[in-house]
UniProtKB/TrEMBL annotation:
It holds the Pfam family Peptidase_M36. Residues 772-813 are annotated as: Disordered. One of its GO terms (cellular component) is extracellular space. The active site is at E554. GO terms for biological process: proteolysis. Belongs to the peptidase M36 family. Zn(2+) binds at D330, H553, H557, E583. GO terms for molecular function: metalloendopeptidase activity; zinc ion binding. Its EC number is 3.4.24.-. Gene3D superfamilies: 3.10.170.10, Neutral Protease Domain 2. This is Extracellular metalloproteinase. Its cofactor is Zn(2+).
Length: 831
């Protein structure tokens, strides 16, 4: 196996530097890589097709007809409109998610998302496979493909490491910073590439290939090959390499067939998996020269102690890993220490808006901030949806269970000192019939050997805070459109659509490590899992559960993963710019929530990490001296990882948000007004005066203020953007969201904000890799419609698509069309 980085670091003499001041940081092993899709495109201009003339009023019929016209020349191809498609009640936009099938087999990354309103296709993303020729695709070619994206990824990572090593100046004071960037690459390499050669080695192993049943053999071998790479246990890795034959007979494969769905299978007793592994046969698109081909794979869903993977492994030996997405998302490791008012529960907590103990005191707060989002409050759910054993359920399971602990319809919060996957019966504070969760919190400085025990004394206060913050995040996200049909996290959905039984499992003081946090986001209908850690960066230890920004960041992973590409697809934000934006949205939303009318710069995680600048490279700031991040910053050493990419995206959004605040002002409370008794939402001082269409239908409510408006546009943009979006796609989706919501009245302010940090209309990227590489060019130009005297003109010649060298037409024709024709088509967005 490969040990390039360890040897290279030793040669460079940086091993001691990297080990400096580690503070026993918890580093969760994670795999994440996959092939690029050079043909993928995102189109944000209204699209009209002749087929729409015969469409019914059903938007899903419009989607079907539109996709039929779009892909009619692909021989052997079919598609289905996925069941998680939905209509956003607030905007009236239907988000239709379409999955491709070739010869009856799913193309797991063949997606078209179509956004429709009033019979018009507003925008769509397209990553459908298109064969090199017009002949029907030969499945045999997909089975025998020799393409190896895993090896390609590792070779590129090796080149990046070697390049950065050549730039390290060990005599410079900057060496620790350079070494930190190399350290992150070292973990990427060690986790992702240590077993890249194993498939070829094990394919030649007679013991590995021996099995009685061919189907079970191939599935078990492919899964065992993945578990070899995925497990963090070196002992288990060695066991698998020494004697793989002892594992395969224990891995029992069961097949299930359904009339309307592809057959799938489960594998029991996979080593290091905590539950039976789900799997199915599928295709994955992989680049081959200047075109794209298909690879036949087994698609596995593997739940482990610290990870929840969606992995594609080639169906034929050698069983290579083609792509892998970890549904668990981490907070980054720091580089240095760092109902009615008279009813309901009460909590002694740091109130909403107080980010951490350094900026405020605890106070008594009331339950059930928003009855629209949480009709039963925070401590009630139907027995039918209660994960507790059957013994606690009455005969009528529809009855409501009221709890006196931190157990409810949105969140199950509890301690997890053992750091294991058990949770149903974990300890939770019980406030009794009064539901007054009033617990002491006053940790003292102790000897370091007692610091953990001292922190654990206050678990009641910790769990209460986590429960309170998480429920408010649920309610806030709900009011901006993250509801049941779009995939939010609830045990009971009140008959409002979506999949049930997926409230957030929230672990306080998780014992699996320190100085971290993460969130696992499976598809809609499976519980999300939030794990919060203690931080041993100070004495007494600091508790991540008490820093609201970290909790909000983690819960935002569930938001962005479920909204991007549809609630049933958790694989759209796995790596590269897409994965980075998954991190960046969390930072941006957390920072927006804590901000106030008197502008300030903000750092992420500064209290928990005991470090003024927090756990990012820079605080979020309008001052380019304080935070110089631009789009081109992604080309710098140390910006391969999703967290570094994410902070660039969050900084860009922070600048964009200030443009809207300059124009529309600031609202102190981001929560919309509570609903009236008849269910209608009053305008208050939060929304603009309600408007109606010519036939009397209400138009979407528009937030009046800049900070609430950008919050809405960011969430709406997530719904509009395609699976695996680039920075350009997400930018265009936010601009398209404003067009749909306001008729495009903020077009220039949005472009000014994006252009200020390099994402103007002339921004470009060449040779972008799916994990973040490429050569970027900052663009500061605005559309002609927004140009002011003395500002640069956009290029006179159209740029090649979205800068991805894919030859598509999704940017320049639309941008020029917007400049010239906005007034012509704006009516179709406002009906």
């Amino acid at each position: 196996m490969r040990r390039l980085f360890v040897a290279a670091l030793a040669a460079a003499g940086l091993a001691g530097t990297l080990a400096h001041d580690s503070h026993n940081v918890s580093r969760r092993k994670t795999l994440s890589f996959g092939p690029v899709h050079p043909h993928a495109s995102y189109h944000t201009n209204p699209v009209y097709h002749t087929s729409l003339l015969r469409a019914s009023e059903d938007p899903l019929d419009v989607a079907r007809l539109f996709v039929e016209d779009l892909v009619r020349d692909i021989r052997g191809s079919d598609f289905v409109v996925r069941k998680d498609s939905y209509t956003d009640e607030a905007t009236g936009i239907t988000h239709a998610y379409v999955r491709q099938y070739i010869n009856g087999i799913e193309v797991a990354d063949g997606d078209i998302n179509v956004n429709i309103k009033d019979g018009v296709v507003l925008s769509y993303g397209d990553s459908f496979f298109r064969p090199k020729t017009t002949t029907t695709f030969n499945v045999a070619d997909a089975v025998s493909s020799k393409v190896d994206p895993h090896a390609d990824y590792c070779r590129t990572l090796e080149d990046e490491i070697a390049s950065q090593l050549r730039q390290v100046d060990r005599t410079s004071r900057k060496a620790p910073v350079e070494a930190s960037a190399l350290e992150q690459l070292s973990y990427l390499y060690e986790w992702n590439c240590n077993f890249v050669d194993a498939p070829d080695i094990m394919a030649q192993d007679i013991e590995f290939s021996a099995a009685e049943d061919v189907a079970s053999r191939d599935i078990s071998r492919a899964l065992l090959q993945f578990m070899l790479a995925a497990t963090p246990s070196e002992d288990l890795q060695q066991e698998i390499m020494d004697d793989p034959s002892k594992f395969i007979p224990k891995m029992h494969v069961s097949f299930e067939h359904h009339m309307s769905e592809q057959p799938f299978f489960t594998i029991e007793n996979a080593p290091d998996a905590v539950n039976p592994v789900k799997g199915r046969l599928a295709f994955i698109q992989v680049p081959e020269g200047n075109s794209t081909t298909l690879q036949l794979v087994f698609k596995f869903e593997v739940e482990m102690k610290d990870n929840w993977y969606e992995a594609a492994v080639s169906a034929e030996a050698p069983h290579r890993i083609i792509s892998v997405v970890d549904w668990a998302s981490d907070s980054p490791v720091p580089v240095a220490p760092v109902p009615k008012d008279s009813e309901g529960a009460t909590y002694n907590v740091f109130a909403w808006g107080i980010n951490d103990p350094s900026v405020g005191e605890r106070s008594i707060q009331k339950e059930n901030f928003d009855a629209l989002a949480s009709p039963l409050g925070w401590h009630a759910l139907p027995y039918a949806n209660d994960p507790h054993s059957e013994s606690v359920r009455p005969k009528d399971a529809s009855k409501i269970r009221n709890t006196t602990t931190t157990w409810g319809n949105n969140v199950f919060a509890h301690e997890d000192w053992e750091g294991r996957n058990n949770w149903v019966n974990n300890y939770r504070p019980d406030a009794g019939s009064s539901k007054a969760f009033d617990f002491k919190y006053s940790p003292k400085k102790t000897d370091t050997t007692d610091a953990l025990e001292e922190a654990q004394k206050y678990i009641n206060a910790t769990v209460t805070q986590l429960f309170y913050t998480s429920n408010l995040v649920h309610d806030l996200f709900y009011r901006y459109g993250f509801n049941e049909v779009s995939g939010n996290f609830q045990q009971h959905n009140f008959g409002r659509g979506g999949q049930e039984n997926d409230a957030v499992i929230a672990n306080a003081q998780d014992g699996s490590g320190y100085n971290n946090a993460n969130f696992m986001t499976p598809p809609d209908g499976q519980n999300g899992r939030c794990r919060m850690y203690l931080w041993n960066t100070a004495n007494p230890y600091r508790d991540g559960d008490l820093e609201a920004g970290i909790v909000i960041h983690e819960l935002a992973h569930g938001l962005s993963t479920r909204l991007t590409g549809g609630p049933a697809n958790s694989g759209c934000l796995g790596w590269g710019e897409a994965g980075g934006m998954g991190e960046g949205w969390g930072d941006f939303l957390a920072t927006t929530i804590r901000s106030n009318k008197n502008y300030s710069d903000y750092a992420m995680g500064s209290w928990a990490a005991n470090r003024d600048n927090g756990i990012r490279n820079y605080p979020y700031s309008l001052n380019e001296t304080v935070n110089p991040s631009t789009y081109q910053t992604l080309d710098k050493p140390g910006y391969w990882g999703v967290h570094a990419i994410g902070e660039v995206w969050a900084q860009i959004l922070w600048v964009v948000s200030q443009k809207l605040i300059e124009k529309h002002g600031f609202v102190d409370d981001l929560f919309p007004p509570k609903p009236l008794e008849d269910g209608t939402i009053p305008e208050g001082d939060f929304y603009r005066k309600a408007e109606f269409t010519a036939d009397g239908k209400p138009k979407p409510l528009v937030p009046k203020h800049g900070n609430s408006l950008i919050f809405q546009l960011v969430l709406d943009g997530m719904k509009l953007q395609p699976c695996r979006p680039s920075f350009f796609d997400a930018r265009d989706a936010i601009i398209a969201a404003d067009q749909a919501l306001t008729g495009g009245e903020n077009l220039c302010e949005l472009w000014e904000g994006f252009a200020a940090r390099g994402l103007g209309v002339d921004a470009a990227v060449k040779n972008r890799t799916p994990w973040g590489g490429g050569v970027r060019t900052n663009g500061h130009a605005l559309p002609k419609q927004c140009k002011k005297a003395g500002e640069p003109e956009p290029p006179t010649e159209p740029a090649p698509g979205d800068g991805d060298d894919d030859g598509d037409d999704d940017d320049w024709p639309w941008l020029q069309w917007v400049v010239e024709k906005t007034a012509v088509f704006s009516w179709s967005w406002r009906l």
